[in-house]
Specification:
62 residues; 2 helices; transport; mainly alpha
């Protein structure tokens, strides 16, 4: 009986008590996450490329 009540109350809470964001707000958040992820990936890629070039130069010395 407890599991049944939990499921029923969870469904009721999701339908009536949760404040869902507007679609435009959701789009803005998704675009922000996408842009931030791309910037982060570019920064990490540049750091990796720089480190690789430095290590290649260093190993070529020997």
């Amino acid at each position: 009986m407890n599991v049944k009540n939990f499921v029923i109350e969870s469904i009721d809470e999701m339908r009536n008590k949760v404040t869902w964001p507007k679609y435009s707000s959701l789009q803005n958040s998704a675009v922000l996450v996408l842009v931030a992820s791309l910037i982060f990936a570019l920064v990490i890629g540049l750091i990796d490329l720089t480190f690789e070039n430095i290590m290649t130069w260093f190993y070529d010395l020997f």
